[in-house]
Amino acid sequence: MTSSQFEQKNPEKSGLSVEKGLPTRPFLRIFLICFGWLNVGFAAVGVVVPGIPTTIFLIIALWAFSQSSKRLHSWLYNHRLFGTFLQNWKRYGVIPSRAKKSAILVMLASWLLLVFTSKSWIVGGGVGLVMLCVATFIVTRPSVPFGKQSS
C-alpha cells in the first residue's frame, strides 16, 4: 500500500484532517493557533504604535489560522477592524501606504542597527540585500484597490 493510499483510507492516522487538509495532530494545531494569535497581537500593537507594520502580521496570522482552525480563520478574515486589510490583500494584493512606509522604516532601522553592531560586512550586506528585495516587493504592491485610485 502506498502512502497516498494509506492517507485516503486512514486520514486521521496520516495527520491530515478529512476537512480541507487541516492537521489533526494536536501539537501542530495548537502551535499554529498560538502562532496565529501571536501575530494578531503584533498586528494590534501595529495599529496603535507608529512604525510597526500591521498588514504582514495579519497575513501571517490568517495563514496560521487557515492551517489550524476554520473558525479562527473566518473570524479574522471578517473582523471589523482587521478584515479590511486582509480582504484587500486577498482580492487586490493591496498594502496600504502607511503599512509600506512603516515596514520600510522598520527594515531600514533594523539594518542600520545590524550594520553598526556587526563585525562582519558580509552579514550586513547579505541581510541588506534580502531586505532590499523585500522592500522592492512591498513598494511595488498597489496602495489602494484597482479602480479606486483617485484622479
Describe this structure as you would to a colleague:
This protein has 151 residues and is mainly α. It has 2 domains: 1-92, no CATH class; 96-151, no CATH class. Helices cover 68% and strands 0% of the residues. The chain contains 7 helices and no strands. The chain has helices spanning 3-9, 26-48, 55-68, 70-77, 83-92, 97-117, 121-140. Helix 2 (26-48) packs antiparallel against helix 3 (55-68), helix 3 (55-68) packs antiparallel against helix 4 (70-77) and helix 6 (97-117) runs antiparallel to helix 7 (121-140). The chain is globular and about 45 Å long.
Q: Note the run of SSEs as H and E.
A: HHHHHHH
Based on secondary structure, the structural category is mainly alpha
Oligomer: single chain
Count of alpha/pi helices:
7
- What would the principal axes of the Cα set say about the shape? globular
The separation of the N and C termini measures: 62 Å
Largest sheet: none
Integer tally of domains: 2
Strand content: under 5%
Radius of gyration: 19 Å
The share of residues in helices is 55-70%
Please tally the β strands and state the result: 0
Low-pLDDT segments, ≥5 res: 11-19
Q: What average pLDDT do the residues reach? A: 81
